[in-house]
Structure formats: C-alpha cells, structure tokens
Amino acid sequence: MTENELLLPQEDYLKSGIHIGTKFKTKYMADFIYKTRPDGLSVLNLQKIDERIRIAAKMLAQYEPGQILVSSRRENSWKPVKAFGKATGVQFFAGRYPPGVLTNPQLKNFVEAKVILIVDSWPDRNAISDANKIGIPVIALCDTNNQPNNIDLVIPCNNKGKKSLGLFFWLLAREYLRARGVLSEKEDLKESLAEFTEE
Predict the structure, then answer these.
(1) Tally of structural domains, the chain
(2) How far from the centroid of its chain's Cα atoms is residue 61's Cα?
(3) What is the number of helices (H) and of strands (E) in the chain?
C-alpha cells in the first residue's frame, strides 16, 4: 500500500502515536507488529491499522447510529468517544459501563444495540460479556498487550494515548459518515481533530 492509499498522510498517523504499542505483546497481536524498538516498545504496522479502520467503518455503516454503542472505561478516551457520538449520533458510555445495559430491558438506561465498539477489551470486559450474551458483533481497539477473546473485529492501535484515540475516533467518524453517504468521499468532518483530542 502506498502513502496515497492510506486514509491519512503517514505523517499524521505517526504524529498521533497510533502505532506505538506496549512492551508486552500477546501471541495474537504479533501479526500486527511491524517491529520492536530498542527501548522494548512494539511498533504496530500502519497499513494494518489503516486497513482495519476501513473495515470497521464499512461494518458500522451497515447500522443506523442508534443501533451502535461505544463503550469506554479508559479516561483518555472519554473526550474522543463523546465527540464521536456528537458527530455521528452513535450511543456511548464514556466511563463505567453499567452492568446489564444491553441485556436487561427493565433498566432505565437499557440500550438496544446491534453492534458494539470497545476501546480496551480488559477494562471494557463487562460490555463485551453482555454483547456476547445477546449475540451482537464486538469491534475492539487492541494494543499489543490485548487478548482478542470474544471479539469479532480487532483494530490494532495504541488504545491508551490521548492523541492516538483522538485521531482514531475522528477518522472513524469521517469514514463512517462517508460510508453512510452523509459526507461525500472528498468531504471532511466539520469537527476538527482538536475537538476529539485531549490536550
């Protein structure tokens, strides 16, 4: 894949640190790792990140915004997740996922979702468990230290960094709205990347 075929210039991806993994790597995530730096941090393959963002956008575009739920326990992702919800109309939980939200219609905050996007499979494991109980697809951002258990689509990326998460959700919002025909292929989001990124 050449530079022109990426969703963003390579430099923009690199500036956000979306490709910087952890020092720990699981066997499953090894396929997405490009190399290990001298300081021990893994570097994820940018082409594979880009490819999976495209797949996720196309997969999500099959659903109305109200049928999608984003769940994120990790504080660094709260601002981007809220901005993503605002830009796309998608439902979200930024903070602790309330148990039973997907499975118990008696709850006041019950959500009927047909697909769920998770920011980190470990802190968001309760949401994954609920999604599995009702049989809806799970898309998850996975860093080099994540296990892909009970996940239907893994998106390899740095799921801990503020800039990385901001860029990811900004790009996914743009690609989702383009795939839904809300934006033209050449149109950008009216929201700036800064609106998705914690300082």
Answers:
(1) 1
(2) 14
(3) 5, 7
As a whole number of angstroms, the distance between CA 46 and CA 20 comes to 10
- The residue behind tokens 């109309």 is 89
Q: Are 115 and 140 in contact (CB under 8 A)?
A: no
Residue 84 and residue 103: Cα distance in Å, rounded? 24
For the domain that residue 131 is a member of, what is the CATH number?
3.40.50.10490
Segment 135-140 long-range contacts (CB within 8 Å, at least 24 positions apart): 136/102, 137/59, 139/56, 139/59, 139/60, 139/115
Range of the domain at 131: 3-196
Task: Give the pLDDT means over successive 10-residue stretches in the chain (199 positions).
Answer: 76 95 93 94 96 97 97 95 97 91 93 96 94 97 94 97 97 97 92 88
Query: How far is Cα 20 from Cα 47, in angstroms, rounded to an integer?
Result: 14
What is the C-alpha to C-alpha distance for residues 75 and 95, in angstroms, rounded to an integer?
7
SS3 23: coil
pTM of the entire predicted model: 0.94
